[in-house]
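User: Show me an example of a complex going from sequences to structure tokens.

Assistant: Sure. Here are the input components:
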Amino acid sequence: MSTPNSGLLPVASGADVKEYALGLLQRQRAKVLGVLALYALAALAGLAGPRLLGELVGAVQHTTTRTHIDHIGLLLAGFVVAQAVLVRIARYASSVIAEGVFAELREEFLRKVVALPLSTVERAGTGDLLTRMTSDVDAMSRSVRFAMPETMIAMATAILTLVAAFLTAPLVALPCLVVFPLLFVATRWYLKRAPQGYLRERRVYSHLFAGLTETLEGGRTIDALGLQAKRVRRGDDDIRRAFVAERYTLQLRTVWFPSTESAYVLPVVGALLIGGLLALHGHATLAQVTAVTLYFQQLVDPVDRLLGWLDELQIGASSLARLVGVGRVPADRATTGAQPQGEELRADDVHFAYREGRDVLHGINLVVRPGERIAMVGPSGAGKSTLGRLLAGIHGPRTGSVTVGGVPLVELEVDQLRREVALVTQEQHVFVGSVADNLRLARPSADDDQLRSVLRSIDAYDWVQALPDGLATAVGSGGYVLTPAQAQQIALARLVLADPHTLVLDEATSLLDPRAARHLERSLAAVLKGRTVVAIAHRLHTAHDAHRVAVVDGGLVTELGSHDELMASGGAYAQLWHSWRADPTTPSGIGQP
Amino acid sequence: MRAFPLADPGDPEVGSPLRFLIWIARGQQATLVGGMVFGVIWMCGQAAVPFVVGRGIDRGIAAHNTGALVMWSAVLLGVGIVQATAGVLRHRWAVTNWMTGTFRVEQLLTRKAARLGASLTERIDLGEVVSSGTTDAGYIGNCLDITARAVGSIVAFAAVAAIMLLTSVQLGLVVLIGVPLLMLFIAPLLRPLHHRQTELRASVGKLTNFGADTVAGLRVLRGVGGETEFVARYQARSQDVRRKGIKVAAVGSILDGAEVLLPGIFVVVVTWMGARLALQHKLTVGELVSFYGYAAFLLAPMRIATEVADKFTRGFVAARRLLRVLALEPVLSSPAVPVAVPINAGLFDTATGFTVTPGEFVVVAASEPPDASDLADRLGRYRDPTGDERVLWGNASLTTLAVDDVRRHILVSDKDPRLFAGRLRDQLDPLARADDEAVQTAIDVAMAHDAVDSLPDGLDGMLDERARGLSGGQRQRLVLARALLVDPEILVLDEPTSAVDAYTEARIADALRRHRAGRTTVVMSTSPLVLDRADRVVFLQGGRVVNDGLHRELLSTDAAYRSVVARDEESA
């Protein structure tokens, strides 16, 4: 059974994330330094404005010529043009790097995802992984595309502006440094709290949207059970939570915004007042005071942007930790290189627990002879599906062993395991891509003719050929919609291509309408031909047709034998069978515990 | 600050998107005005900084007046503090405006959806409604949020233009003409940028979908192989996104450059003209510094103007989409004077001739399953019969009763019932009417123990959205337990065990019959294991009742019936 447990995937530690991020940058070091140099040049060009305005002021004060003013004007224009060109080049270059880094990051993430251990994939559920694939990759995109370059630019610009102010008039600029401790304290206070606050906002909104979606989609159920008031309450509760989360970050900003904004104005006031006093006593020129005052005004923008992006960067780091964490799942099997001798699949005294201390299998012994067909029947929750997963090598037993040809399944390479035994479940998935893409997963080397002949063998070629583009028709989410029976046939065709000698079949036809089911059973029969089959049976005729039937109840095999033998023994299986066939010789009301 | 959720989000005007937006705005008039007032103070404070600096230079430094210098420096500090305070107050009001608009729309939407119930799902494309519900409320909020900055910008722009005009007509005109002209220059660059951004977004969307699709099918992928193939395909898409991202940057960086160049040139022109005027003593040096500052400041209102246009357009479109849901009314209506609920009465459907008497356990086998579902919908009045046909409950047609009365007494569990996220116990007994013993009994009858046990905390465990973490069979049995807990007078179940294995199905059918003894129960099913437990089987063929009786009788006397219920037997 699937456990909605989302805590199974690890999150990387802070040190781990730092190392990973530095590694990414390291590989691009030359390019990153080049871009930083470009930004520095652009910032330098931008610093000419206040300096030249100061000169204009000085010149006007000393009644200069119009030509001089025109020259300064032209120079100003020249710097503006230079800055614009440099900004254009630097932005472009940094985007090229950012896009490259981000592409590398997400590609590596996907490589880790598809290499996750089988047991993790089976148990972790897709929810957490899906969040990482969508929200966390998205958060990373904001960090890599915007936050990282913006903070680098802002930092370079801020530092250069400060340097320019000091070079223009150190005495005027110096007193203004006092604001930096102020900014530092306020921002540190804010950053300690803000990322948690914004992450909580994201969580409450995704909860709110999930609730709204359920309400919109579940109209019929709401109607039937009279849940209107309850859904409204759920919506209102979510809004209350969203409000509380919003109010929290708003309070943080209510403290942080005015402290930083007041901090911004202090250097400007200081430059005017102290610079002015110095000028009045002949220690500075009006031109210098003007330039420094303007520099400090100009400093506000990069510092503000720098601080503004910091919380996004922190959020990005926590997303990165979740992406990197996927690669930190310990392997669930140790391959030994041992080669199976023969095809016999057997379970010996197998115990298994999903959670410690709660065994769901209590000592299973089962030998599946090559070519044999075994049906497993039994009530829900008896352990049939779990046993199926162990027989397919997805989980290893807690104690005891499950072997094929004498080699434990969990000691085989995954690629080899697939050639030995495959698990066929109710859960089918048509991937986005063409029909051919969907089939080739199982055998990448197969050409179109091979695909066609496989489809023919399971009686699925006719409808595939009738699709708009035949084998090349785009299917899956957003593409041509296949019926559940067709999706099932795609899955069966994959099995034929993968060609394992043993199949563990979790009976899948029960959700289909009877006519489709009949067609599907014919396809299935074609796939099963010549293979060893362990079928977890929902339908009794499957059991009837099997060589042997294993009744699984309470984590044990309680009856084992051919249909006729079990009928003769008159156990639980025989009673159920009678009821199903409505055999008039037995009373109804059987099958209960 | 106003607290949310609102006790009553009100009854919106749904005549047109504009009227809806005006209605929303009217509901928060006071905070909108508050935001605008602080927006004006904040923006004017920013505009005042160059003015004060200029005065400080003129009256203080140039005039060699220490007192004036100190005074104007103090004024500058005061302006800075006023601006910072007004800024944060503006922000607080704007956030309140955003929340009021957004939350109110969400509340309206939830209430509307709950009231529409089944008639919502049937009438419009749900995918669109869902995406509208999750984004459009925010777009409405954005419209309200920006009003404070919009009004602040307009007033500050007018003030700066007026000061410049008063000082120098020439420079004033440069500003009044120059700023709109700048916007005109930047606008043509925005179109190719938006175009490429749209392409990028589409590419990113495809990539994300591909990633999500890989995750969704990961079990299959890890089961049959093809990982290398998937990595390669993802890589190809990822590289496509990278190239598109670079194409966006190619245009975007030109825009970035233009945003430096055009305003920069504007500032240079203003400064240069100012310097010439200063040389002719028509302008003081302080005023020259002020003008440089004004020119730089004017970029802010310009940017806000673009943002306002964008947010209002989106808000208007969002309002139109929202109205498609908010303007809907339920399809089924109760009569003005509904008749009383019949006591201890059976149901009769004239269209099929189906009838069930009080206390009976009837199973309907239909040769075409959709016919059974239609019948179920009519019995619970989710759909009214066509023409002169009617569904009688005792002597009363269902349409003469209040819909709520019908829902309270007749429960129809359809083929696609939903489980909602939350604590399992609450989801099984959503109206909290049953005691622990009743809950346990319902779980026993529905054979749902394994579903309960699969949650780490059992009944106290949390179901995720749509109970996705459970298998189809587990969900189906939990839904059955939920229906049993409602304990309705008449219970109609459409294929309640279609995803359940034979063993379990047999046990459920037995327990269900015992559990519902004395209460009216109708089950739609073609499974022999269920039919065998019925007091009476009704056989539906071609939309009419053609036979009824005990399962075993029908099996031996009716060949058509036999072929329908024995389908899976034959297919073996």
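The lines above are the inputs; the final block is the predicted structure for all two components together. Confidence is low (pLDDT under 50) at residues 1-7, 584-593 of chain A.
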